[in-house]
Automatic annotation (TrEMBL), chains A, B:
Keyword list, A-Z: FAD, Flavoprotein, Oxidoreductase
Cleaved signal peptide residues: none
Domain of life: Bacteria
PANTHER family linked: D-LACTATE DEHYDROGENASE, GLYCOLATE OXIDASE SUBUNIT GLCD
Cofactor(s) essential for the protein: FAD
SUPFAM superfamilies linked: FAD-binding/transporter-associated domain-like, FAD-linked oxidases, C-terminal domain
Domain FAD-binding PCMH-type stretches: 36-215
InterPro entries linked to this entry: FAD-bd_oxidored_4_C, FAD-bd_PCMH, FAD-bd_PCMH-like_sf, FAD-bd_PCMH_sub1, FAD-bd_PCMH_sub2, FAD-linked_Oxase-like_C, FAD-linked_OxidoTrans_Type4, Oxid_FAD_bind_N
Protein name listed in UniProt: FAD-binding protein
């Protein structure tokens, strides 16, 4: 609970109409895409960096935890106010400040929705590649804080690779700039990339300078079906080994295909055990040549079917298979734990085999799909929480999935972050010295531990 | 001066044959590519991370400054032992530990010479793009610590974009891993990229995992000559605006061309005021098309001559113009200050005009060339130190050049780093709050300030 005088001071900072303390408003800001919920004491909607600075200075003086929040679409509880405090929502900072066509960059506020930004730059023939699945509602500030990825990361990289500079309010309320408008720049420590992916624990991003690219001339989509996981996995290495870096290399395992087929009747071949949705983009003639080459080199790998889209409508039809995955999963079981492990590309078949064993051990359905080009697999553990004991089984399975990824030289998360959901598992991946180093940085920037406290590190 | 017992303990750690205290050895490690010199008290050549850890623990206990050093080819004094202490040379850690062709990555030790690494991966059809001018002698550890760039950064990015993970000895002697073998990974803070470009002030890199690419199928080199700086600068934006991102876009101004021509008689057209050396790489047919397109779109911009290489020998001949720049400069004056400012691409003509004014103001020759695609211009202030007052003029000109770059939205350094040489100018670029944030991080990781102290920040 916040005292009335504190609420009063917050009202003075952000305006009475930009603070909420009624239960219904608190509930709206108590959850994200995980199944966790924590009620804040108050929600503030500041309008600019100066107001955010003043909120943080007040919070620092009074030792009140502050939890930055974008659209609340995160998959790891990174924005949830566990323990209570102030949720600081950045959605009013939602302007695209400028798009510089000559220097291929844009400056935006953190509350801009990802897809809206993409549409605006595309109108000018430009391209912002990062495409997290949540792009229709997630904010760019959230994308930066979580270092969001997406299918196009194989060729273009993740959010980090497009952030040139930031304006940030530090936990102490200081407003600083990091990086700048040039891609090269080596003066001082790389605070920009320290902040990207720091999950709102080191600062509140108030401006972002993004690098842009020219929009690719054309793209070509292929749906390729294999009679084994190994075939699909070898296809990934074979394509890249032939000097083709596709834009996307999306993978769906047998369980995923069964899910989608059961509900939407895809008419996939009976031998289908894995599907790769492949897209290439760039010069119109080059992608024709690449598509033909891809067909040629993957043919010997147990290829059952090769569909190539002739136009945008056919491309959309092929993507439908991938987009139907999420709505189909709930048919297996109503509740889902969605983890996003990563392994070195060549280890994808091994990790899928390990997950099959985990599935048998715990006797719960696990469905795998994701970004095979990066080795980034979304592992969906499907349970029914109403069934006694099933949630505990899921927790055991999740720990085993993380151990499998780490055993194979991978990581627990490629896109979703640690937040609250992976916090208990951190010691599996990071050594005490690594954790101590990160905590020392946190303490250096947030001496009173008021910004998104209790996240990421073991508590 | 180090006491004899300290020398004795260092000998026990690295072996008596791997420590040097004789004046001639100290002199060899007292300088770099700047014109500064500082004698260390001792030089150690450890053989592995464990020995480095023990050296740092000893140094911490005794509060002895330690200065990590690769090949000593840096351009900012980053490895120089100002104030004395121990120079820690990493050249004995010079193994390429593995090249993983399936996952397109390599693990190396920091003492591997950049060009040697490139040659080894190229034998396997792979590609490590970063190409600092010093690549024939610089080490990969130095490249990582300075975040080295090079001509190919336009298309491929800088060293930072290829570092996936590190093994680092922290100033306290702790050995940690950062990042890993997967390109995606969001567990914990991005210590990898905090360390890249930290100029040896936060840790000693002992292993590096690099991302690799498939080696491009072909490349095409063009030497394009313009009748004005503006024409050449507009050519850069026009090419990129036409969806072509060349591998390199190297720029030489009129003063540079005169220098080279005077010595090597290039036979450039009389109207030549600027040259762009352009290279594209990739699919054989695509680059033919791109070269034709480049010719078409830059023709209206005051193009005086367009030479395109038909084969590798002709390509080498065109590159010769660029390579002759450095040896030609000394004809202007014997001493050189080489700064590497960056401005947004569109501001290249403005900054060149400002530099012309600075040249007139101080009446000293300034020669500009560099990476126009990134807006990264190497500004060479040519003086004769024997002439009284000329060095002071150079210092004034350098400060003005930095101010011009910053006024235009740029940075003082795109590749060389701060080290000692840009330290006095840091407050021009970074705010007190930015500096305080960086110093807090330094203090968190190096509480006794023993690792490369007195660098980067104002002292």
């Amino acid at each position: 609970m916040l005292d009335e005088p504190i609420i009063q001071r917050l009202k003075e900072i952000v305006g009475a109409e930009n603070i909420a303390t009624e239960t219904q408003d608190l509930i709206c800001n108590s959850y994200d895409a995980t199944q966790m919920e924590f009620l804040p004491d108050a929600v503030v909607y500041p309008g600019n960096a100066e107001e955010i600075s003043r909120v943080l200075k007040l919070a620092n003086g009074e030792r009140i935890p502050v939890f930055p929040r974008g659209a609340g679409s995160g998959f790891s509880g990174g924005a949830l106010p566990k323990g209570g405090g102030i949720v600081l929502v950045t959605t009013r900072l939602n302007r695209i400040l400028r798009i510089d066509q000559e220097n291929l960059l844009a400056e935006v506020e953190p509350g801009v929705v990802t897809e809206h930004f993409q549409q605006e730059v595309e109108k000018l023939g430009l391209f912002y590649p990062p495409d997290p699945a949540s792009l229709k509602f997630s904010t760019l500030g959230g994308n930066v804080s979580e270092n969001a990825g997406g299918p196009r990361a194989v060729k273009y990289g993740v959010t980090r690779d497009f952030v040139m500079g930031l304006e940030v309010v530090l936990p102490t309320g200081e407003i600083i700039r990091t990086g700048g408008e040039t891609y090269k720049g080596v003066v001082g420590y790389d605070l920009t990339r320290l902040l990207v992916g720091s999950e709102g624990t080191l600062g509140v991003v108030t401006k972002i300078i993004f690098k842009l690219l020219p929009y690719p001339e054309a793209k070509k989509t292929m749906l390729t079906t294999f009679d084994s996981i190994d075939g699909a996995a070898r296809a990934v290495s074979t394509i890249i080994g032939n000097k083709i870096i596709p834009t996307t290399l999306e993978f769906m395992d047998h369980a995923t295909l069964q899910c989608v087929d059961r509900r939407f009747n895809l008419g996939l071949p009976a031998e289908a055990r894995a599907v790769l949705l492949i897209e290439v983009d760039g010069d119109r003639e080059l992608i024709e040549k690449q598509a033909a080459k891809i067909h040629e080199v993957i043919k010997p790998l147990g290829l059952v079917e090769f569909k190539v889209a002739k136009d945008a409508a056919e491309s959309e039809a092929l993507w439908k298979v991938r987009r139907l995955v999420s709505p189909s999963l709930r048919d297996v079981n109503p509740d889902k734990y969605n983890e996003d492990i990563v392994v070195p590309r060549s280890k994808v078949p091994d990790v899928i085999r390990r997950i099959e064993q985990i599935q048998q051990k715990y006797d719960i359905p696990i469905v795998n799909f994701g970004h095979a080009g990066d080795g980034n697999i979304h592992v969906n553990i499907m349970i029914d929480k109403a069934v006694p004991g099933m949630e505990e089984k899921a927790h055991g399975a999740i720990a085993d999935v993380f151990r499998a990824a780490l055993d194979l030289g991978g990581t627990m998360s490629g896109e979703h972050g640690v937040g609250l959901s992976k916090q208990p598992f951190i010691p599996l991946e990071l050594s005490p010295a690594q954790i101590a180093t990160m905590q020392a940085i946190k303490k250096a920037l947030d001496p009173n531990n008021i910004l998104n406290p209790g996240k990421m590190f073991p508590v």
